[in-house]
């Protein structure tokens, strides 16, 4: 297996190297220059993507990116006639047609290119939408446009994130970045209270079709919240950027009774932007798996030495999501915004668990069948008030935000267990019934102010303040039925009230500037963080109370150094300090007994992880290839890992998060975009990394280390004028953990799309996990047990989606354009 891994890595690297060499070409000394600006504020727009397209072959002749001052250079251009396009997420794509390059052409200076959808030459009678650049680079983030992902249509945000380079999700929807967990997930730049802030349930409740882009920030600057061990993922929901009245609607139907529907409506003119969207998700997931436990030190010859657990499960999720907002321009440089969102969800989960516990001689110790039923429901809403004031001086801006969100999350659980054999003696019926009722209420407050001020020709100062306060109240009540009666008695062992107050107050200061082709950004963030918890529970049937507090103050520096090289190359070095804070539910010590042989509990004494991250990045643009590569090194102190206890007399293992000593993750990541011909392109991502864990004698955890890698590839093919195909494959190699190893996982997805001739409607079909191969499995081992675990949730899924776009842009129409000149114009494009 190891030989196969290394051969696969060698083949991948050789393929990438040959591809880069094949498409690297030189041209003449002709070049195009310009500066991209916001038409309203006159601020420059950094890290936008400019493309020069050959009008004859329709192939990309050159790709460039604006620097931190919005300037771009396209050197060494070949002779020919081209179309020039420049785009950035949230702005109207700007186009200049019939750009002629000859042997005598020197420098074509396009001057200031001003982006503003309200001022573009928009033609209402043409409704074709141009495809956006799929990846755009910022000084500290990558922006992936995901609204073209065919294989995710009809799925959830969790399904869609699997298509984003560097990002992966497990069977439960937990997110990792470059193979590491501890990712901060935001929705429109803010934390979400859906399902009490449970990231997995948040991602399951948001339809993929409502997402416009995903921002991946692997090494965030001091401007961002310092939380997130491996970085930040910001999911940006769709918002109106077009003039006039516009809207879309889509419906999806899939196998196993899976359905989605969503619609959005927007109106914009020079003074106001109104937008709203609504989506409904009805998702069925069928899964299951097994768990085999070997107990190394059974108490006696008749006690449990082996346990085999087989699970079959089904889960039904129903959710409503709505969002609406208003942007109003008080003056050309002053805008006030009010937005609100609402989510409600229901979840029904059924599990049938067959448990067989055997002695060392393989004779029965305990055979039982258990039925778990969970009825989950809840709702949340959020309100945000924003104000942005721009000034006459370009890039000077002052902004304020006040946000409030509130939500409730409830789960009613019923566990019914029928014992069929005890100590080699069959039992006709021995039924036990247990009920657990969980209720949770959470609220968040966010107050933020940011100010940016240009200094000199290329410098900029950014400063800001932010306070986040999260309040949580979670209660659990449990009872069980008396044998041979219908009487329920209180189960004090599982009853508790847990409340928390998590607050972070922060100040930050950034300074950035550029000296010719060298740019730098220096930042400092100071945070005062405090987590207070309060617990009421029973100990030996006596009600007791306890309080906990985690309080710390830290300074988080960040340094970014960027050097532009000849031939569309760029090198960046960065360092940041970060933190991974224990969440309130990680500190709640009361038991989760939903797994019969594996209990889970929180740890009220958890410390925050202290993370130091270094990164060396390299970006290169060729005629048909874009390469982004990163060498990274991350050391985490007080690393949080879930540690398994020795089994009790009944063979039950309890898993609790603990602070271990330290962990080092280092690796190389490659992201390549290949535009082979007009009809074919693909994006590939390869991540090779080494994980090293320092052992901890307190938990009998030895030192461990291991190499792993993962890769994915997405290909897009246009087979006819209105028909496109997409195929995606991914592979995750085995990976070492603190107490064992996670096994390999792989899968393939495929999709197809047909655009109707009027360009207002489309029909798409996709299949996720085509060969039903994605299974999450691991082997863990400690001094007491060896556990083999495998789980599958979902399997092969097919979806058919119909989408319809409607609306008419009606401002600043240029009716004098010749008909033939309108063929390349789009509603989200403007000419200059």
Care to describe what's here?
With 832 residues, the protein is mainly β. The protein has a 22-stranded antiparallel beta barrel. A hairpin with a 2-residue loop joins strand 27 and strand 28 (542-565). The protein is globular, with a radius of gyration of 28 Å.
Could you give a short description of this structure?
By secondary structure, the protein is mainly β.
Helical content, roughly? under 10%
Helix segment count? Answer: 3
* Share of β-strand residues: over 45%
**Tally of individual domains:** 2
What is the CATH topology assignment of the largest domain? Maltoporin, Chain A
Query: What is the rounded distance between the termini?
Result: 57 Å
Protein topology:
Blueprint: H1 2-23, E1 30-38, E2 49-54, E3 60-65, E4 71-77, E5 80-87, E6 93-101, E7 107-115, E8 135-137, E9 142-145, H2 157-161, E10 167-169, E11 175-177, E12 183-187, H3 199-205, E13 211-217, E14 231-237, E15 244-254, E16 258-268, E17 272-295, E18 306-331, E19 334-358, E20 364-390, E21 397-422, E22 425-426, E23 431-455, E24 459-481, E25 488-490, E26 496-515, E27 518-539, E28 542-565, E29 569-580, E30 592-595, E31 598-600, E32 609-621, E33 625-637, E34 640-644, E35 653-659, E36 662-677, E37 680-693, E38 704-720, E39 723-732, E40 735-737, E41 740-742, E42 745-755, E43 761-768, E44 776-781, E45 785-793, E46 797-808, E47 829-831
Parallel strand pairs: 1-7, 6-47, 12-14, 31-35
Antiparallel strand pairs: 1-4, 2-3, 2-5, 5-6, 8-9, 9-13, 10-11, 13-14, 15-16, 15-46, 16-17, 17-18, 17-45, 18-19, 19-20, 20-21, 21-22, 21-23, 23-24, 24-25, 24-26, 26-27, 27-28, 28-29, 29-32, 30-31, 32-33, 33-36, 34-35, 36-37, 37-38, 38-39, 39-42, 40-41, 41-44, 42-43, 43-46, 44-45
